[in-house]
Amino acid sequence: MKIGDADNGVVTIASAHGAVATADKLEALIRARGLMLFARIDFSGDAARAGLAMPPSQLLVFGNPQAGTPLMQAVPTAALDLPLKVLSWEDADGRAWLSYNATEYLRARHGLDADAMKPVSGVAALVEAAAR
């Protein structure tokens, strides 16, 4: 199942695994493709440490400076959305999801050239692979 909202550019797809297992799989795919994992933020773990309950939710921040830097050089505000980010999360029913910004949304938001976006457009395939 794929959920997309054309107004906010967020693409959400269902995962066949729990949120943490999905984030683990995504991290392994990121590393296997030679991308840099800049951060893995465990929102639910941070919430628990603050005494708050939250379903599993982790954000992976990753990319390739050779792909992202030219975009940020062309349009500095692209750095607001780069490196790429994928959120692995579970809803109240325990279903796991992956959410990310659509490449076309990022292109339009920052006025980037479509050809320049090709190096970062692989995010969709990476997310699909992690969800399987």
TrEMBL record:
Span of domain DUF302: 41-101
Name of the featured protein: DUF302 domain-containing protein
